[in-house]
Amino acid sequence: MILVTTKYMQGKEIEMLGLVEGNSIQNKNAVKDFFQGVKSAVGGELKEYVDMLNKSREISKERMIAQAKEMGADAIIGVRYSSTAIWEGVSETVVYGTAVKFK
Questions:
Q1: Residue 31: enclosing H or E segment and its boundaries?
Q2: DSSP string, 34-72
Q3: Which pTM was predicted?
Q4: How far lies 82's CA from each of 16, 28, 37, 70, in Å?
Q5: Across the chain, which distance is largest between two alpha carbons, in Å?
Q6: CATH code for position 73
Q7: Cβ(26)–Cβ(90) below 8 Å
Q8: Running along the chain, 103 residues long, what does each successive block of 10 average in pLDDT?
């Protein structure tokens, strides 16, 4: 599946099929959270959180792609990601775009 952030694909005539989206909600592990808190006090990258958000983005993307495939799409244009904290320690990642078919 081709994913692009642009609203068109140069050299391709497309038919828009509709909005597709995927989301994932992840929470922090309490033990890992404690050690990340200690690390944040001394500085440096919080790798556990980076890994958690990367995993959340990947899950969300795969769900969006599955939805586009069900529609018979060849690509998804205008792809955007959004992430928000739902409550302390819980984050949601959403990805969305427009499923298109090549003419």
A1: helix 30-42
A2: HHHHHHHHH-S--HHHHHHHHHHHHHHHHHHHHHHHHTT
A3: 0.82
A4: 22, 18, 24, 23
A5: 55
A6: 3.30.110.70
A7: yes
A8: 94 96 82 52 70 91 98 98 83 96 95
Q: Alpha-carbon distance 90 to 45, whole Å?
A: 19
> Radius of gyration (Cα) for the chain, nearest Å?
17
List Cβ neighbours of 9 (8 Å cut-off, separation of 6 or more). Answer: 2, 75, 77, 100
Number of domains forming the structure of the chain: 1
User: Which residues span the domain enclosing 29?
Assistant: 2-102
Give which of 50, 47, 51, 59 is closest to 93, Cα–Cα: 59
Tokens read off for 34? 């404690």
Check: CB of residue 55 under 8 Å from CB of residue 94.
no
